[in-house]
Fold this sequence. Notes:
Layout: H1 2-17, H2 36-53, E1 59-61, H3 73-81, E2 88-91, H4 98-104, E3 110-113, H5 117-120, E4 133-137, H6 142-149, E5 157-161
Amino acid sequence: MTTMATTADEEMAIVQWLHLPWASNRKIYVPEEVNEELRRKITIERFWALVHQNPGLVRLSFPNLGAMNDLSKDYIFQSLTSLKHLRDLDLSLTLLNPRTILTSLPNLHRLQIYNLDGLLTTPLQEQFPGLHSLGLRTYVPISQVLKVLDHLPYLENLWIKVSVQDW
């Protein structure tokens, strides 16, 4: 019985450690029960804690967890724009707007994204000369991809994959 209390106390300490609003929900804590949702959210929070502790990151690849999309896009975006040296970004499983990312991260040389929706919703006016590599997992017509490519004058590498396993 004492062992269970210690385990529950340890788990409660973990819950109290959480500081992201979406992860700090105490309703997900159930004593004496393995809670995969809590573990997944703790993993995401630790990921972001490491990102914030390392503002000099040059390459960032998001964990393959759908929970990443549970976070607000504003939180993710603000966190990314604080990384002034970021040159390589893998957003393949997030739903962030690629136009906003490219505009806000001018040092970005390599971007891997799920789709082009953010670049296709309105006609592009701006050029993105810093981007040299673009990886897509998309189902848009090739004519739309070609319109985007017109705004990437220094693009050296383009790859389009059908499934995430192909990355």
